[in-house]
Amino acid sequence: MALDNDSFIREVNEDIRQENLGRLWRLLKPFILAGAAAIILITAGVQVYSYYTLREAENMGDAYNKALKLAEAGPQAAAFAALAAVEKSGFGGYPLLARFRAAALLAQKGDSRGAVKAFDALAAEAHLPQPWREAALVRAAWLLVDNGSFAEVEQRVKALANDVNPMRLAAREALGLSAWKAGNLQQAAYYFNRNYSDKESVGSAFAERAAMMIALIGSESDDTVPPAGRAGAGAAPAAAAAKPQLSAPAAANPAK
After folding, report:
1. Residue 210 — φ and ψ, nearest 5°?
2. Are 132 and 166 a contacting pair, CB within 8 Å?
């Protein structure tokens, strides 16, 4: 009799468990199905977003390349419009590249002040990576070598002409040329000597131009600072035969 009672109790408990499970399933079923649907939708959304991003990157890359080709033909309205369209897209790093190229195109057009203003605007944007902001300052300074004063050049790149900044060689060269153009031979010699003696300039065009300018400045005045020595260097820089071209070095040209 006791066994029959135990069996009956087990059956009742099993029925209750089954009924509870059924009730629980009916209660949770909508949430479980909704969760499964959400997972499927999220997975599909990620795939669609990845596809869209890839396509957008390809399209924007094509648009930027077309803008560059137009810019290579000269500072025409179509080139500026194409670069502006890339800038407005806001996609990836292309807008920043487009802004640099548009500023350079203004300089090519002959609007040096407009180009300086554009580069200054880039340098003033705190959210941009520091190397890009410094590159914009150097580009502006180089435009001002021919179209501004020494004070304007110094205002932009004096802080970069230290012993550790990656842009120091281009910054010093701009300062040296600007000082030379202003007739301040002592200051010009100071910056060119620093470039010539900088270990990072060994074997570079910066060192060649520094040597040429040191020699040229020496031929213009007997009171200038003599060429600085350099570890492993031999004789002082040779004299230059003619005034050098005042063109920006490649290192100051991050976005062509």
Report:
1. -60, -45
2. no
